[in-house]
Amino acid sequence: MRSRHSPLRIVYGDHRANWRIGLVSAFLTVICLVWIYPFVWMISTSLKSNNEMFSNPGLIPQSWATENYVRAWTEANMGAYFFNTLIVTVGSVVIVTTCTSMLGYVLGRYRFPGRNILFFSFVATVFIPQGFTIIPVFELLSRLGLSSNLFGLTIATSGHAMVIFVVLFAGYFAQLPRELEEAARVDGVSFLKIFWYVMLPLARPMVVTVVIMQVLHAWNDFLLPLVVTLANPAIRTLSVGIYAFKGEQFIDWTGMAAAATISIVPIVALFILLQRYFINGLAGAVKG
Amino acid sequence: MFETLHRYRYHYLMLLPGLILGGMFVFYPIFAACYYAMHDWSGFNSDKVFVGLGNFVKLFNDPIFWDAFRRSLIFLLGTVPLQMTVSLVLAVLLNNQLLKMSTWFRTMIFLPVVTPVAVIGIIWTFLLSPFNGPVNGLLLDLGLISRPVDFLGSTDTVMPSVIGVYVWKWLGITMIYWLAALQTVPDDVYDSAKLDRCRGAKLVWYIILPIVLPFAIAITLISAVGALNVFPLIMSMTNGGPFFASEVMEIFIYRTAFATGDGSIPRLGYAAAAGVFFGFVVLSLTIAQAIATRRARSGAREISS
Q1: pTM of the full predicted structure?
Q2: What is chain A written as a DSSP string?
Q3: Reported ipTM exceeds the 0.90 cut
Q4: Alpha carbon of B123: minimum distance to chain A alpha carbons (Å)
């Protein structure tokens, strides 16, 4: 205890702490550089010509070839797949947020006949794997005549991931205070308007979380779009498109690297812009 | 009856869109999968023949199914402990408030999580390629190997390679969970630990871990369920090959149901049976999680009180 308060400790103690922090930073810097090397390599490769790719193993491209991007965008159809993915992502985000916020609101805040059984049915299915339900989902879509169009893919993508969001919304709405809602009711505001103008704005942090998680899910989804697009390659999403590209032109590394870059840029940009929400939203999943 | 319906009419109205969606894509498929699992059914237009539990009997006698099931377990045991420990170490290091670049490091480690799995599969097939792939290039330059290793093309190395890529892809998310758990540790715990000169591994093992144990169980089980859903990664890296050496449960289901093999007939009923069995395994894991978390939470409460 004596040494803690000695002047020497005060002077050298800081030094030692700084030194340790420096060491940890250096260690983490090395780890992170190795960690993101695949991305650096991918971008570098996408800017090389196919010949240079084999002759120049370095990371700095000599030719800065942009024709890989042109080829990926037009010949490999990445342009069309990009817009398909965008439609499915935006569409499913709108559907999922609307449906699950209303479900979560009613299930989280009100007690009515059938409420408990509904709520527990949702909770029980949270961890059902996709492989379990893919066959009936595809069969249902075929029967409705939606098995090979973008609308079918969009609603199926929405339905697949909704359960966890219902649970998250119900939990969030349940802990909001009663006063505002009651004040609004005394003023004669209708049930639906209270939800829309009072409660939903209060739940904005959870809405942001759900939007982000659904964007991630839709942009990443693979099994469902793969199955739905088996019969109609024109509606492939980026993930399926790049998988097909690999099957068809497995020697065109630079073209594929360009296609890969195209498909990750939007989602990575979104992540970096909204990083705080991503991290907090995901952290909420274990805290609850 | 009618009165109750009328009284809660707006509640039910607001439930409706979500219930339709959930009914179509969550609840109906669960019952339908169980129904198909009891039928011999080869395609979407052909007739179903009721076989009861016949598919399950066949399944349990099918060595290919058990191989796939075993591989899913190997995958689980290979990824989860590695992912949990490495991400915990990184989270403890990043949780240090004096570390100024903490956010940067976190962003970089999280980058693979937001990247579509199919893209990750493609990039890593290049990186691990025996022909001019940079990983082989590096190992050759360092003199660790004398000739290129076909990481994804040989039955011995394919599973470890896929496990490695999986851990790289998802480590960031486990790290975020750990960071969230570490934030719940009160500052005075660190202060008193410092007074007692307890730090480093000792601090983590004896003081931090017992506090975050309830989270640890939740995180382990979230990771375990994740490790059973690896279809996109394995599909885009190896298609389950070479010689089925990386065929896990979901690939088995997909291949059986949609007959992607040469000249094979789709067996939807059989695949549905495999799916139902697999679903039960995952469900048991989930229930185990719920029980374990509850026990750990009440245990932690007893300690703290």
Answers
A1: 0.84
A2: -HHHHSHHHHHHHHHHHHHHHHHHHHHHHHHHHHHHHHHHHHHHHHTS-HHHHHH--SSS-SS---HHHHHHHHTT-HHHHHHHHHHHHHHHHHHHHHHHHHHHHHHHH---TTHHHHHHHHHHTTT--HHHHHHHHHHHHHHTT-TTSHHHHHHHHHHHHHHHHHHHHHHHHHTS-SHHHHHHHHTT--HHHIIIIIIHHHTHHHHHHHHHHHHHHHHH--HHHHHHTSS-GGG--HHHHHHHHHHH-TT-HHHHHHHHHHHHHHHHHHHHHTHHHHHHHHHHHHH-
A3: no
A4: 7
